[in-house]
Write a structure and sequence with these properties.
Radius of gyration of chain B: 23 Å
Number of domains of chain A: 1
Strand content of chain A: under 5%
Largest sheet of chain B: none
Helix content of chain B: over 70%
Oligomer: heterodimer
Order of helices and strands of chain B: HHHHHHH
Largest interface: A-B, 73 and 86 residues
Number of strands of chain B: 0
Distance between the termini of chain A: 59 Å
CATH topology of chain A: Helix Hairpins
Largest sheet of chain A: none
Strand content of chain B: under 5%
Helix content of chain A: over 70%
Chain lengths: 103, 211
């Protein structure tokens, strides 16, 4: 087998990102869309940490990855609060039916 | 549980697989590290490489499950697998603190929050919560449009690499970095979390109509 190197981790990050993007684009359930956003952020995190280890050195990439994790958690919390509010208003979280700016 | 021969065979196979895994890890990874067992002579395939491929495959399979599954609970399990796989890849990259933070915050916080939202926004009696996707062909086109480009960039570019650094603990260095070089983003992140806390509660509560 090929020795594991930077390209392997970048491939994993790229695949996570692509699947996340497909999830965001095709899901009808709003929580499913948020799962796709989490996948996208994880793909970017894998890239950050891989470049930090193989190219840059130090811990800057890991610090950035930690900030991404913090902001992803914050954004998931607010996004899910919005999903709950939409569920209370429209009684569904199908993204095709939440099409009013105010009730 | 009905007793059946097929189930018994599956249990025996599963137990044998777990036992083989434990023996393999003890003799090849944990034993040599503790000095109790002499390390095996190096072959063409090393254990860290095999482990990397297994974990990377698990992460990508989880991501595929999130994208393609019809049941949103299966999608959540796929997300769990993807997050676990990515977290274990961080250990390969000498990012032990980031790996544990991924476990605690992402899986223990974000994934649990997503599961809460799944359970709160679907009818309790409906076991098969639907997660049908719109335009699977469009999603396939999107995947074909983006993934090969990213993979080609990742594989073809001659990345300037430095000689592989030894795996080292990073908590000390990250703590120093947070309080010296990255102090302002650290404090701003705290304010962002405060705003998130307040905002999420304000958005999600039921309006109390004044009577």
């Amino acid at each position: 087998m090929v020795q594991v190197s930077l390209a392997h981790f970048l491939v994993v990050g790229a695949l996570l990102f692509s699947f996340g993007m497909v999830t965001v684009a095709t899901r009808r359930n709003a929580v499913g869309v948020l799962m796709g956003v989490e996948l996208i952020l994880n793909g970017a995190n894998v890239n950050f940490v891989a470049f930090n280890h193989y190219v840059v050195g130090g811990v800057s990439g890991q610090v950035f990855a930690l900030f991404v994790i913090v902001l992803a958690a914050a954004e998931a919390a607010v996004g899910l609060a919005i999903v709950l509010a939409i569920f209370q208003t429209f009684k569904t979280i199908d993204v095709r039916f939440a099409d009013l700016m105010r009730e | 549980m009905r007793f059946s021969l097929g189930r018994l065979v599956l249990w025996i196979l599963g137990a044998a697989a777990v036992l083989a895994f434990v023996v393999l890890m003890t003799t090849r990874a944990i034993g040599p590290a503790a000095g109790a067992v002499p390390p095996p002579e190096a072959g063409p395939v090393s254990l860290p490489d095999v482990l990397f491929y297994v974990l990377a495959a698990a992460a990508v399979a989880g991501a595929a499950g999130v994208a393609l599954s019809r049941n949103i609970l299966y999608s959540s399990v796929g997300l769990l697998t993807a997050l676990l796989g990515a977290g274990s890849l961080y250990v390969f990259l000498s990012a032990d603190f980031v790996a544990v933070t991924q476990l605690l915050v992402y899986i223990g916080g974000v994934l649990v929050l997503i599961l809460f939202a799944v359970m709160l926004t679907n009818r309790i009696t409906e076991v098969n919560v639907s997660n049908a996707s719109v335009g699977l062909f469009g999603g396939f086109l999107l995947f074909v449009a983006t993934a090969p480009v990213l993979l080609a960039v990742a594989l073809v570019t001659p990345w300037a690499k430095k000689p592989a650094a030894p795996l080292a603990a990073t908590t000390h260095a990250i703590g120093d970095a947070f309080l010296t070089k990255w102090l302002l983003p650290f404090e701003v992140a705290s304010i962002v979390l405060l705003a998130t806390l307040i905002g999420a509660v304000v958005i999600a509560r039921k309006e109390i109509k004044a009577d």
